[in-house]
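Extended Data, panel c. Modelled sequence:
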Amino acid sequence: MGRQAAPKADTRSAQHAGTQLSTHTVTGKEHWTHKKTDSGDVRLFLWEKFVGSPEGKPAVLFVHGSSMASEPTFDLTVRGRPDSSVMDWFAQRGFTCWCVDMEGYGRSDKTRDVTCDIANGADDLKAATDYIARTRGIKSLLTYGISSGALRAALFAQRHPERVARLALDAFVWTGDGSPTLEQRRKKLPEFMKSKRRPIDRAFVRSIFERDHPDCADSATVEAFATAILALDSSMPNGTYIDMCSKLPVVDPLKITTPTLVMRGQFDGIAGMGDLLAFFDKLPNPDKQFTVMSGISHASFQQKNHLLAYHVLHGFFTHPPLPYRAPSH
């Protein structure tokens, strides 16, 4: 795709987004970039959505999880279910929205013999934000990650705090304490360690919604989600599963200095409440929030209460300026 000239100054302000709902058509645009590695360049796919022009708007970067690429997660279409695409929803409220397929997922390269772990995903986010900065002149993004995507986003913010304006961590896990899903998953760790990828199918996608509280999602959404995922992938990298089963913690809350929101579904079997509260307590920036979302299990944007997740995220991303900041203690 052709590169557009960067604006002279980065004047984007999230505080003014969302004040008026646009009824204009949302534009989608694909982009490609490369990540340099010791074994050669890796081609990464990015997807951007906006209304009108992307210039001068606050930018959101959405980061996907372990078992699905970015578009099925953030730009899903479900017949009879309005606002299934969180990217469209935010675009209609004045944002330009980005997502990226991590290496090994979706349309991005799957050729290297690697597990595509959390650290590798943080490298992908660096390459993606390098490209966004070159193409749109945006140097700091509002960043949302879900599940292992939250770990990728948190590690990226830890490494590059200047690139993350505000950080939202959904279905996050820190040490893994109090996580029944991870407790069961650890039993399969030897199996995960034997190969770089694991097969997925429709039954697997359905299991994501059945394991915690099945009534949180409707079958039409689950089936549409599965169809979108399986159109791009029949297997997924094992790296994030291995990290979450055997290497936690992979981020240090004391080193995450950006304003941070921790989002936790009421029935989420990954995100232990005590684990999250301990993580939240250690975050050094006083501009932080912790929200429990009623009637939501693990995959927030595919739940019946998905608009609650959108509302929580939008409120955090449109935080007003703070005329007074108390001194640190």
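The first helix runs from residue 70 to 74. This feature is highlighted in the accompanying rendering.
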